[in-house]
Each structure stands twice: as C-alpha cells, then as structure tokens.
Amino acid sequence: MSGAVGRMADSGARAWGKPWGEPWRWLMAPSPADLGFAVRTSAAAILSLLIAMWMELDSPQWAPLSVWVVATASRGESLSKARWRLVGTAVGCCAGVALIAAFPQETGLFFVGLALWMGLCCGCATFFDGYRSYGLLVTSFTSAIVATGAISQPDHVFDVAMARGTYIVLGIACEAGMAALFLPGVRAAARARLPGRLRGLADRVASGVAASSAGRPDVEAESGLLADLVAVNARVEFDVLEMGAGQGRSADHARAALAYLLAVLARARSGVRGAALDRDLGAARRHIQAIAAPRVRDPFRFGSHSPRQAIEALHNGLRAALGIIGAWLVWEVTAWPAGPAFVSFVALVYGLLATREVPALASAGFYRGAMWCAAVAGLYVALVIPAVTSPECLVLLLVVPMIAGGLAARTPRLVNHAFAFNLFFPVLLGPSNLGRYDEVSFLNGALAFLAAVLFARLTFGLVLPFRADNHLRRTAAWVERRLRALARGNDRSSVPQWLAANADSMVRAVRTCRDVPRDEMLRYMGRHLDAMALGMWVIELRDAARSDGLPAGVRLRLRVFLRAWIRQGAQARDVARQVLRHVQRHPDVRPDVLMALRGLTEQ
C-alpha cells in the first residue's frame, strides 16, 4: 500500500511539474524577490487608490495605473522613470490644453493635429535611450487623454489636465514611499553592485580574449559579451541614481570602463595581442576602481550619445499618426458614444508599445493580458463590488489579483500580459465614492478598451510591419555607409561612440531577429564584428592624419588612404598595405598608427 501511495505521489509530482505545473511556477512558487516586488507595488497601488478616494477625486482609478507604470524591480530605474514621467505629464497636459484651445469646434482639424503631435512624440522617442524615450511617450498619450477627455466639455479642459496630473503625482509618490520602506539599504548595495558587475565583465572579457588568442574564436561568445556590455551600459544611469549623492563622476567612469572593454574586444578581433590589450584592460580596471573609491570634485568627463534609429523612428511616428486618425474615423463613422474613451485607449496603447523592439509581438501578449483584465474586472463588477460597503473593503479584495499581476510582471514570457492587466484592471473597475456604475457602463468601457487594444494590434501588424530580413539588410547597409563616412574630414565620431552604437545595433538585431536561421545570423554577426574593428582603425588613422605629431609625408599618405576608403570601403585595404610598407620605414611614425594599419590589412 505504501509503495502504491509513493508511486501515486511521484506520478502526481510529475503531473504537477509536467506538463502544466511548470508554466504556473511563477504563481505557485515565486522567488522572494518576485514576491517582494508584487507585494510592494500592490501596496503602493492600493494606497494611492485609497488616498485618491479620500481626496474625493472624480477618477481615482488613474492613481494606481501610475503606480504600475513607474514600478520596476530596480529602485534607480523607478526613480528615473518617475522623473521623466513627471516631465512628460507636465508637457502633455499643456499640449492637451493647447489642442483643445486651438480647435474647440473643429473636430477634423483637432484629430489631425493630435495625430501629428503623437506621431512626432513617438518618432522622436525612438531617438533616445533609457526613460528619456519614455518621457516623450508619456507626453504623447497624456496629451491625448487630456484632450479627448475634454471633448464634450472643452471649457473644463484645464480642470481635466490638473486632475490627470494630480493622479500621476500621487501614484509616483506612493510608489516611491513604498520602495523606500521595503528596500532599506539599497544605496549601500548599489555602491557595491556597480563596480562588482563591471569587474565581472572585465574578467570575462579578459578570459574571452585569452580563449581567442589560443585559436578558439567564437562569434556567439563575442556577441554574448557584447549583449552583456550593452545591458550594463543601459543600467548605469539607474545604478548611479540608487547610489545617491557623493559619487563624483561614477557614471562617466562606468561608461569609460565599458568603452575600453569594447575596444579590447574589437582589437582582439583584429588579431592584436599583448601589451595593447593589457593597456586597455588596465585602463578599464582603473575606471572601475574610481567608482569604488570616488574622488571629491573629480574633473573626469566621458561624452556618450545614444544610437539613432531613423527608420524605426519614422515607422513609429507614421504608425501612431495613422492609428489616431483611423481611431477617429471609426468613431466618426459609427457615432459610438464611447468613442472618446476608445480614442484615449488607442493613444495610451500606442504610447506604451510604440518603442518596443517588435511592437507587433508585444501587442499580441498585451491583447491577451487585456482579455484577462476584462474578464477578472467583469467578475469583480458582477460579484464583488455589489457586496462592498466601504473603500477599505474594496482595496482588500483587490490584493489578490494585483499580487498575481505583479508576479506575472516578473516572468519574462508574461511581461506584456501583465503590463496590460496591471495598468487597466483598476481603470475598468472605476471605483468611486459616489457609488458603483451599472453593468452597462462597465460593458461599454470594457468594449472600448478591448476594441482599442485589438485596433492597435492590427495596425502594428498591418501598417509598416516589422520584418527581420529587412531589418538585417537595413542594418548592414547602415553599417557600410557609416563605415565609409568615418574617413571624412568633417566626421567627429570617436572610437567609443562607434563601438557603442554598433554593439547596441548588433545586440538589438540578435534580439529581434530570432526567427532568422542560425547560420545566416552567425554570418551577420561575424560581418558586424569585423566592421566594428575596421571602423575603430579608420577612426584612429583619421585622427592621426589631423594631428601635428606626424611628419607631413606620413599624414599625406594617410589622407590618400582615407579618400580611397570613402570611395571603395573595405576594398581600399590594398591602399592601406601600400601605406604601411612606406610608413613603417619612417623613424618618426607612432606605434598606434602602425598598429591601426596592420589591423586594417590583417582583418
């Protein structure tokens, strides 16, 4: 009997783990960090809702939405996101008021103006990294929410703008307060984490270079290192915010250290070994040490620029503008009473998804999360809210779905699902101090929400859709154009800027083009890595040709090579070989010039 029971238990355990137990592990057995994030953010959302209802605001559901928008697992990330959300909200409220004031009785002109404004914001957002991009997106959908919310009562547009701004400030303050309460000692941990992460990367780069010198070059290993370097570079701003004041120029030192590590990889790719690599590795480690022991009044500065994605920006801008005009036409043709809410939801979804790497894929998960959101909100409206007699009881009953949504937000495959659920669950419920609206009102609001998400999903898939093969070809053409342009006399690109932009572009392509056959992707990565190294050598030769530290004859030959490079690209390496044969006999040529020429000819 005991053996039978044991076999049944083993069978049950296997059934739990496979096939359906494992997908639900995020909910049934979350990690302490995931559970802490879900509980902390849910508490902040509930607190913001209670305060908004206590203040008797007319739409308190927007406060918890702001909490979920700015909430992240990292304290520094939340601070940066909140800061840019405040800026974007202020600008968006002003833009919404201006649109209503400019076109109070001209519906067509109003929506054309709104579409152009949203297209401009979504397009420009693609030109920035971090949460500067997010600030522009907040500007776009805040202006749409304010303007469409005041369509029926344009004289009250200022009141609508002030109310929306109040909800957002309240949500941000609650999230910040809970994070400070739940995350004690975050500053000390951040001060140890950033240099530790950089030291680990430096050790991995040194090991990778040693492996390649032993005759085992691995394109996938190099691309993995590049992905980690890009990820750490994206988090520098957040880590420094968590570290607090008194850290000198830690962000500049961190970016300088990453630039030297990128240079090590590029030089090793060209076959450089020995002292040159050790020099760059040593410089990177010195910058890491400067972070661990910051100097007072440190004068060090390191300039960096975010990569520009012009084609993606154009696509995002056009897609958002056409989407808003299309949503307006749907409302205009159908005379739908919930049309303003539909347009507002469309603008909000576009703002949330526009700068995702593949918006069409993100919108699919977002739509599934929206369906779950509407279903759970419907159960609450039909069964729970009628039995609730006070706001305190209501928020206690919201704890379970909010914590579940917070746990889903920490699961990579459910991020987009959770994004839709967490943001719009309180919005669909629409709690109010004056009572519960009826089921018909809920169904109208839920239908407008689901229709908006479905509309956005269709437009992301049909209007200028993302294609991996086109993206790879476009990226390869961009690399070739930029590689030739580096030799121009008026080009001011530095080695760190070139390496950082190309590393980011390559990592982005690898992430977004996963359906491309492996052999084709490896060939693309190999060509991109070679281009990174070639560009580094061209920049060094271009800068040497401008300096006065070389003999005039050597500088003249370098300019001949640079002109040939502009015309022929990589085919000009034969000219580089001729220049190398001439200048290596010259006694006053610097070693770095010889190294750059050898790197070009041996690539």
From TrEMBL:
<dbReference type="InterPro" id="IPR006726">
    <property type="entry name" value="PHBA_efflux_AaeB/fusaric-R"/>
</dbReference>
<feature type="transmembrane region" description="Helical">
    <location>
        <begin position="135"/>
        <end position="153"/>
    </location>
</feature>
<keyword id="KW-0472">Membrane</keyword>
<keyword id="KW-1003">Cell membrane</keyword>
<keyword id="KW-0812">Transmembrane</keyword>
<protein>
    <submittedName>
        <fullName>FUSC family protein</fullName>
    </submittedName>
</protein>
<feature type="transmembrane region" description="Helical">
    <location>
        <begin position="165"/>
        <end position="190"/>
    </location>
</feature>
<feature type="transmembrane region" description="Helical">
    <location>
        <begin position="84"/>
        <end position="103"/>
    </location>
</feature>
<dbReference type="GO" id="GO:0005886">
    <property type="term" value="C:plasma membrane"/>
</dbReference>
<keyword id="KW-1133">Transmembrane helix</keyword>
<feature type="transmembrane region" description="Helical">
    <location>
        <begin position="441"/>
        <end position="464"/>
    </location>
</feature>
<dbReference type="GO" id="GO:0022857">
    <property type="term" value="F:transmembrane transporter activity"/>
</dbReference>
<dbReference type="Pfam" id="PF04632">
    <property type="entry name" value="FUSC"/>
</dbReference>
<feature type="transmembrane region" description="Helical">
    <location>
        <begin position="109"/>
        <end position="128"/>
    </location>
</feature>
<feature type="transmembrane region" description="Helical">
    <location>
        <begin position="337"/>
        <end position="354"/>
    </location>
</feature>
<feature type="transmembrane region" description="Helical">
    <location>
        <begin position="394"/>
        <end position="411"/>
    </location>
</feature>
<feature type="transmembrane region" description="Helical">
    <location>
        <begin position="366"/>
        <end position="388"/>
    </location>
</feature>
<keyword id="KW-0813">Transport</keyword>
